[in-house]
Amino acid sequence: MASRETDRRVLMISLRKQSFFDDMYGSLLASLNSKANLRRVDHPDEAIHLLSSQPSAVLVTDEALSLGENQGVWEAVLQYVRNGGTCVVMGHFSGFTKPLDYKPFFAKAGLPWDSGSYHRTTLVLNREALSNDKAVRLAPRYSQKALFVKNVAPQDSWYITDDASHTQSHVFAPKSANISGETAVAFASVGNGKLGYLGDVNAEEESDAVILAMCGI
């Protein structure tokens, strides 16, 4: 119960409740509940209120914060990050956010990230982008179907493609997926904190480890 001793508090913001979220992310939720105090919120005002308590990490699980009606919540999240917090954008965000909403969403964080490729391919751990204690906990390479973000600096790309990365499809012939500046796993400095993005749409087991590592768990 070391995690309870350190009082790791994770705030999960899920304003668009999806009935299948718990089924898809059951393994991740179990890990979070066993290693941290997980609080899930589905109301904007409650999310803003709980951000003021400075949780250890925040997970944004859907597209709601990309919508104009919830900009106040996203701005509160970014203020939390700039003050030293950690936020990871994951879950249904990549599957439900409109491609044209990516650029303005991340621009508010001062990042040039934008919607990139969408396919399944094998990504390789970029050990130069993260500390060794995190790298040893993550898969050296794994396949994921994801909405990639582009314009990501090399030092912010936890996983990258290489010459062996090709699109994986049961319908279309494989082609190179090695695109510079694109990644499905990004983690960048914003102010004094960190903002992460995981574009995996299928909740791969290896992605759970990525989220936990970004949260410092």
What can you tell me about this protein's structure?
It is built from nine helices and nine strands. It has 217 residues and is an alpha/beta fold. The protein has one domain (2-214): Class I glutamine amidotransferase (GATase) domain (Rossmann fold). A six-stranded mixed β-sheet has the order 2-1-3-4-9-8, with helices on both faces. It is globular and about 50 Å long.
Question: Helices and strands in order, then pairings?
Answer:
Elements: H1 2-5, E1 9-13, H2 21-24, H3 26-35, E2 37-41, H4 44-51, E3 57-60, H5 71-82, E4 86-89, H6 93-96, H7 99-107, E5 114-125, H8 132-135, E6 141-150, E7 159-160, E8 185-190, E9 193-198, H9 205-214
Helix pairs in contact: 3-9, 4-5
Offer a few descriptive terms.
disordered N terminus, Rossmann fold, 9 helices, alpha/beta, three-stranded antiparallel sheet, six-stranded mixed sheet, globular, 217 residues, ThuA-like domain-containing protein
Compressed to H and E, one letter per element, the order equals HEHHEHEHEHHEHEEEEH
CATH architecture descriptor text = 3-Layer(aba) Sandwich
| Number of helical elements | 9
Widest sheet, order of strands: 2-1-3-4-9-8
Number of domains: 1
